[in-house]
Design a protein that fits this description.
heterodimer, A: alpha/beta, Rossmann fold, 5 strands, about 45% helix, B: alpha+beta, seven-stranded antiparallel beta sheet, 3 helices, 7 strands, about 25% strand
C-alpha cells in the first residue's frame, strides 16, 4: 500500500508516518503543501491520501477537489484543526472520505487509519 | 483548571475568548503531550515586555480580529518535541520551531471551533526564536498574558483581540 501524506508541519507528518509504520505501512510519500501533493499524485500511483487543510500555496480543500477530478474512488482522509460543522460538511460535499480533527490521541489516529489501511496492511 | 475570571475591563467579554483558549490548551496538551497544564496567572501585558526563547504567532480574522502567541522557554520547547515525536533536541532549531508552531495551530484551531459564531479564520503559524525580543500589538489593542505550568515546563499564551 502506498500513502500520500500531506501536511506543512514536519512534526505532524512524523506523527502520522510513525502510526502508519506501526500498521505495517512503509511506502509513504510526503508532501508539504497541496501543490507538491498534486504533482506527486499525477506522477505516481497511490492507495490513500491523508491531507491537512490549512497549508501554504494550495490548501487541503482545494487539493481534495483537484484529486477528485483525477480519481473519484481513492480514499482521502482530512486530518485538520478545522472542527466546525460547516467546515466538515464542506469537506464531505467536496468528496472527502473521512475526517479527523486535531488534536488527536495516538489511539484515535490509529483507529482512524486502521479503518482505511489496516485491512490491506 | 478553573474558568477564567479576570480583573481586566469588560471581563465578561474577555472571558468569552479566554475560556475557549484555556479549554483548547488543556485538550491539546492532554492529547498531544500527555499532560494537563495548570493556569498560574492572567494579567495585562506590560509595554516593552520581553517574550521567551521561542514564540509561535497565529493571526485571527473574521467577526473578531487578533493574535494568539504561545511562548516557551528553550527547555519547555524541546520537551514539547520529545513528547510529540520522541526526539531529543537541546537547542531551538527548525524541528523545535515546527513543533511549537503546530502546537499553537492546534490550540488556536480548537479555540476557534468553540467560537464558531464569530466565523473566525486562523493564519498559518509564524515562529520567532531568539532572545529578548519584544512583540508589539496595535496601539488600540490590549494584550493579556496567561501563564501556565505543566510537566513539560512553563509556557505563556498572549492574546490580543478586538471585536468581541
Amino acid at each position: 500500500m502506498r500513502v500520500l501524506l500531506v501536511d506543512d508541519s514536519g512534526t505532524m507528518r512524523t506523527i502520522q508516518k510513525r502510526c502508519l509504520n506501526k500498521l505495517g505501512i512503509e511506502d509513504i510519500i510526503e508532501a508539504e503543501d497541496g501543490v507538491q501533493a498534486l504533482q506527486y499524485f499525477q506522477q505516481g500511483q497511490y492507495d490513500i491520501v491523508l491531507t491537512d487543510w490549512n497549508m501554504p500555496h494550495m490548501d487541503g480543500l482545494t487539493l481534495l477537489k483537484e484529486l477528485r477530478q483525477l480519481n473519484r474512488d481513492i480514499p482521502i482522509i482530512m486530518i485538520t484543526t478545522e472542527a466546525e460543522r460547516a467546515r466538515v460538511v464542506l469537506a464531505i460535499q467536496s468528496g472527502v472520505s473521512d475526517y479527523l480533527v486535531k488534536p488527536f490521541t495516538p489511539e484515535g489516529l490509529k483507529e482512524k487509519l486502521e479503518k482505511w489501511v489496516g485491512v490491506s496492511a | 483548571m478553573s474558568a477564567c475570571a479576570p480583573s481586566a475591563p469588560n471581563s465578561s467579554l474577555t472571558a468569552e475568548y479566554v475560556n475557549p483558549i484555556i479549554t483548547a490548551t488543556r485538550s491539546v496538551f492532554e492529547m498531544m503531550l500527555g499532560c494537563v497544564p495548570t493556569r498560574t496567572g492572567l494579567r495585562l501585558k506590560e509595554p516593552g515586555e520581553h517574550s521567551h526563547d521561542v514564540s509561535a504567532v497565529i493571526g485571527i480574522s473574521g467577526r473578531a480580529q487578533g493574535t494568539i502567541v504561545v511562548s516557551l522557554t528553550r527547555e519547555s520547547a524541546c520537551a514539547v518535541v520529545e513528547r510529540m515525536i520522541g526526539e531529543k533536541e537541546t537547542e531551538i532549531n527548525a524541528v523545535v520551531c515546527d513543533a511549537v508552531g503546530e502546537l499553537t495551530n492546534m490550540i488556536a484551531g480548537s479555540a476557534k471551533a468553540q467560537l464558531a459564531k464569530y466565523e473566525l479564520s486562523i493564519s498559518l503559524p509564524n515562529v520567532i526564536a531568539g532572545h529578548n525580543y519584544v512583540m508589539h500589538s496595535p496601539s488600540d489593542v490590549q494584550s493579556m498574558i496567561m501563564s501556565f505550568n505543566s510537566e513539560i515546563g512553563p509556557f505563556w499564551i498572549e492574546i490580543a483581540f478586538t471585536g468581541f
